[in-house]
Amino acid sequence: MTFRLxxxxxxxxxxxxxxxxxxxxxxxxxxxxxxxxxxxxxxxxVLVVQRVPGHVMPRWPDGTSQQxxxxxxxxxxxxxxxxxxxxxxRRLRPTGDVGSAGREGARVYASPAGHPFCVRPA
Length: 122
Description:
Elements: E1 7-12, H1 15-26, E2 29-32, E3 36-40, E4 46-51, E5 70-74, H2 77-87, E6 90-93, E7 107-110, E8 116-121
Parallel strand pairs: 1-4, 5-8
Antiparallel strand pairs: 2-3, 3-4, 6-7, 7-8
């Protein structure tokens, strides 16, 4: 028996805004229902944005967020930064840490609904 990842589900009070953000960032096609947006993009499992009225990002007592997050890889960090911001994302950490190889590490962003994600050099 094996498992296969078929989709990732993202909660949002406003699935239109959240779905549009991920569509602008990743491309692909979107199918909409009254409560869900299904984004299909080459190289990714189906991304499903589901309506959760009153959704707010849950927090641990120390203030950190309580969910999984996406990691995206790119060969052009500056263009990726511009694209994320133009799509409606916001920076959570302005630049990536410098790794042991002297290369920039991940930059941390949030989607319109507050879901964090990282963009790393490929």
